[in-house]
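Run folding on both entries below.
>entry_1
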Amino acid sequence: MSAREMLEELETKYLSPYAALSQDTQGRDRPEPLCDMRPEYQRDRDRILHCKSFRRLKHKTQVFLAPEGDHYRTRLTHTLEVSQIARTIAKTLRLNESLTEAIALGHDLGHTPFGHSGEYVLNQICEDGFVHAVQSVRVVEVLEKDGQGLNLTKEVRDGILNHRTSGRPSTLEGCIVRLSDKIAYINHDIDDAIRARIFTEADLPREYTEVLGFSVRDRLNNMIHDVIAQSMDKPAILMSPDVEKAMKGLRIWMFENVYSGSVAKSEEKKAQQLIETLYRYYIDRADELPDEYQRLMSERGEKKSRVVCDYIAGMSDSYAIDRFEELFVPKAWKA
């Protein structure tokens, strides 16, 4: 018996009857020989962890654009925090931790530079629109490995696609990531906003903190415990009504006080203008795109607007700024 088969047997004996078992995966679009050591969802986790799009997340904005300080979250640290919360919940509920981790690590691979402000402007100017969850799936199906994609299992791609509030994941593991994403960003964005002196802990609405807790640590602990308590031995991932109401209320409060119009967003218009300028430039000069993007048009027949959107969405903040400066900022002349 191979190491993979032993691990799959352990899953069948230990995991909840509601867990997605690795041996029962719906598989990949392109069939591959099974690994002798790793079950299928673990292989997907490893592929995501080693891909280029994952590494670029360290230079993409979470909320604070180019903050002066080493401790503000980036898209990568957000992803890791989502993964840790999701794994804690999955492990305690005896669900598939590898599937949960793969979905969590891949859920934001398609996110734009400059956070949701970048997503907003691409959605406005790209003729087919832009949604980062859809783009994350496109990254793993098409864009990675020079157009080959990562060939992930259907369950991982489903969880990535459906991680937004409006999503309906087909597995409980996907449902865990969907909820963990909100738990993570609400709490770490509060932490970053307090660090940036946008508000203090005492400014948070008491009607929510009395339910969730009076510190980031307490809120994380209470929300995670609540999900586990409400979901144990059930075919759903749930929150108690009071905790869910408080979380949603705090999320709305954060939109009103941080995500829209705060000092943290003061540079967003410039970032959006930069992205729109790059988009217009490459729409007119698609022959200047890197070779792998030109092949998407010549070999796969992809629309130019889609491929330009792919290129810009894949940029890190710093690379987008560098491209803009290279194309549009005059340089000092040297004899």
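>entry_2
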Amino acid sequence: MPTKTTRKSTRSPKPASKRRLTYADSGVSIEAGDKFVGSIGSLLRRTHGQRVIDNPGGFAGLFRLDYNEQLFKHNHKDPVLVACADGVGTKVHLAIEMGIHDTVGIDLVAMNVNDLIVQGAEPLLFLDYIAVNTVDQDVLYSIVKGISEGCKLAGCALIGGETAEMNDLYKPGDYDLAGFSVGVVELKKATNPLRVEPGDIIIGLESSGVHSNGYSLVRKVIKHAKLKLGKTYRELDTDRTLGEVLLEPTRIYADSIVKLLRAYKVKKIISGMAHITGGGMEGNLNRAIHDQVDAVIDERAWTPPPIFDLLQSKGNIDEAEMRVVFNMGIGYCLIVRPTFADAVVRRLTKSGEKVHIIGKIVKGSGKVKIKGRK
């Protein structure tokens, strides 16, 4: 897009007073907001394909469902739009404290598109909302740079957003993020928990770490155990600092999953999927099954990243609590027909995922049962 993008900058209402006041008096700079909007055009354009319609100065982004009408009709006889919204949560506090802001931009995209693909959808477009105390050009540019990178990884277009400058709601230096994603799926190919059958195999894709859930507890552990974000810890088995490990972006699974779904255009080999976020395996995988089956998980099938052991030991956290709050090393699950399990593992591994067969579906009552390591 040209200099003027579809991103807007929202500011607090002008205060009432007898003397002549300006926005600057209230701590809001129109000039700074406009300058920021003008600086990020290239970050949006790098995510655009032929489906994005140029709309200079527009109030909203324009996106064609396909740039080739005949191709779209061939691929989608009964297309359904899929949409979701999510944020990054209190992970932004660590980003602010560390002065590292691009990684949470990737997180923002990941938390949305990873939910989207669970429905069998292809991500199409993304919008963001950033709320700040005042416009800091460097910080905001870094955040949007991360969002742009996340969209590239997910294969979706960043077509606009909103920057809300509200110094009466946010402390200096604070900000919050929200994202909105839209995708498309052929109705008959959308996932349906009723398709899950006893004997189906559960495949887990490794997470990149804590991802973007449980950071209120993470920060509580840091405070309780007097941990230092800028320090390296032997338990983490890396030369990266604790803060850098905790800011590792949420893994984006979209490219791998979309490629897998395209490889099986006729056969419905995948009966269910789940993005493992807040609530852990039990609170998310159960959403992918119906009440006539159970998902039995063997935790010995994979090894969680060291960060989880560190948090558990330093915070004296019960094993059951860890499972509920964190992903424990598995960020995404697929339920597949047993005949195709090995082939799916090979395809996902080829796509760059670290893959484990972690369980199976049995007759039951809609529960997720976990066989622990200990």
